[in-house]
Amino acid sequence: MDTKKTSLYQLHQDCNAKFVEFAGYQMPIQYSEGIVEEHKFTRNHSGIFDVSHMGQLFIYGGDELIRDLEKIFPLDLKNLKLNHSKYSFLMDKDAGIQDDLIITKIDEGFLIILNAACKDNDFKILEELLNEKYKMVLDENRSLIAIQGPKSSQILNDVVDGVKDLNFMSGNWFVFENQKVYITRSGYTGEDGFEISVPNNFADKLTRELIDKGSKLVGLGARDTLRLEAGLCLYGHDLDKNKTPVEANLKWAISKERISKGDFIGSDIIIKQLNDGVTKIRVGIKPEGRIIAREKTKIFNQSDVHIGEITSGTFGPSVNGPVAMGYVENEFSKKNTKVFLEVRGKKYAANICSLPFYKKSYVKGAN
Amino acid sequence: MSEVKYSKEHEWIKLEGDVATIGITKHATEMLGDIVFAELPEKGSNVEKDGTAGVVESTKAASDVYTPVSGEVVDTNQEIVDDPSKINQDPENSAWFFKLKIKDKSEMDSLMNKDDYDKFAKENNT
């Protein structure tokens, strides 16, 4: 199968991107300045990320759709206000995570942003669960551009007037070059920022204007170091079908109101785990030295017993040291618990820590 | 006069008397990207030609560092362990990795000179 290219492919080339294949797309892993510089530029100024490979699923419908989606997602969707977004998951009946996603209430229904590698399968699952009752469009005609970092609000507002008044985790339709663009104040870096759904034909022009105003393109490499410092999960690594939202320490994303009713897919397991606890849980892990413990690194306790595994690990440029996340047996999940990581046959000391590794407050909004 | 030679694994080696200084090439650092971790062999240990003698890691992945000749490790560069970004800044000079008291100078013969290495690097630009 041929790898797909996004609407910004030419721009990536113009900016000397190094490409990698990711979920069937040719995506930029970094540009000429490199991952560390791109990471720091995002934290201090503003970075632009092409995330057009992600799925933009529009589902159209009214009150009946809300009721049907509540059978799928552990969210209080009937009280989700217009243009407000929630983080959630598509679970199987055992509460295993099939994808993590952002769902936004729009006028005609919902917009769901899905992971690139999962989007086609998610579409099939949802179509089946909804009995093909609703019009569903996995929109290939729109690109998705994220702009993240402290200067992004001003830069984007200079190009699309009014966006700076958006609140965190909410969105709206705006106009760029007479085109309707849907913009949410959200992201995946731990910084204030926006995600812009724009027609493919206008993605290049929009992005070039953002660059002219002082933002810079940032590749998937820095996207990974930024999200890991922010303690955010990456599907296929920190989350998968063998992990539940409770095990993933994401129970904050499950509506309490919905748990009391327990009528969504996977609710039996979720309720059981919330009541009885879990055997393994996701934690932050900070190695003591400079050693980098990557995915699949084994974790041991002080008695040299294998207690878990790293699911993401890298060097955090803003932390200026190694950072990792992983799953450990529940009794070793307390903050400051000393553990050992086996890297290239040697064991290195590390400590369980709270997430995120790097914290900056999200902007609540100008109002 | 000292002579600098190069290996197919992108190490450089400079021989002065019977002590060789070894590091990784500028080409290698460009392929790796930002280097954020370096691990060196222990002083006093013996390393064998083409064997692993260290590790460098970029934000993306870990790569082994090999030794192009055999010998006893007589010195290591702690500065690059404390600040691995120095490897990107000055790979073929101040950011050397380790020094070996070499056993057999003839092991140098199979290595490339600068022109041959530059050509090799250009052809293996992956």
Polypeptide structure, described:
The complex is a heterodimer of chains A (367) and B (126). With 367 residues, chain A is of the alpha+beta class. Chain A has 2 domains: 275 residues, Probable tRNA modification gtpase trme, domain 1 (Gyrase A, domain 2, 2-Layer Sandwich); 75 residues, Aminomethyltransferase beta-barrel domains (Elongation Factor Tu (Ef-tu), domain 3), CATH 2.40.30.110. Chain A is built from 9 helices and 20 strands. In chain A, the strands form 4 sheets. In chain A, strands 11-12-13-10-4-14 form a 6-stranded mixed sheet. Chain A has a 6-stranded antiparallel beta barrel with strand order 15-18-17-16-19-20. In chain A, a hairpin with a 2-residue loop joins strand 7 and strand 8. In chain A, helix 2 packs across helix 7. The longest helix of chain A is centred in the middle third of the chain and has 13 residues. The termini of chain A are far apart. Chain B is α+β, with helices and mostly antiparallel strands and 126 residues long. Chain B has one domain: RNA polymerase II/Efflux pump adaptor protein, barrel-sandwich hybrid domain (OB fold (Dihydrolipoamide Acetyltransferase, E2P), Beta Barrel). Chain B contains 4 helices and 9 strands. In chain B, the strands form 2 sheets. A 6-stranded antiparallel sheet of chain B has the order 1-2-3-9-8-5. In chain B, a hairpin with a 2-residue loop joins strand 2 and strand 3. Chain B is globular. At the A-B interface, helix 2 of A face strand 6 of B.
